Sequence to fold (169 residues):
Amino acid sequence: MTLDSTLAKALVAQVNAELAASHSYLAMAFFFDAQDLPGFASFFRAQSAEESQHATRLSDFLLRREAEVALTAIPAPETTFASPSAAIRAALTMEQGVTQSIHALYGLAREKSDYAAQTQLMWFIDEQVEEEDSFRTLLTQTEAAETDRWNLITLDKEIATQAASAASA
Ligand SMILES: [Fe+2]
Ligand SMILES: [Fe+2]
Fold:
């Protein structure tokens, strides 16, 4: 089944949005590195890698459906934030935006009766629930910790331990 051109265009835009998210998370990792918070930095590096995998997952699907995937320039991400929680809030806002666009894509795939695209997007819908949840938790924890530098360092160590056990799982 040929991919509807409107749907194809919207999916290609999402590939580019995932790459932009990957870029943003890398900038956030650098921000946390500069703050001497290596646990947060590795968390954001892992997020960046995940977003690039999302782009690949979607572009592979598009290529299998014989759509052309035109990559666009990635805008320069924000590199400075007022505080650790401000960076995480920006990440959460970005994820909420992604959730909205995934939902819109799913609606479009339904409208076009493209069942394969709906299945692909279903994976992303579930993924967004997890992503929003993990950023919301991290935001709450960071807001509570950041008023005291030592608490923030303790949280950073905890995040580093979690990241290490997730990587070995
Ligand atoms: Fe993503
Ligand atoms: Fe994400």
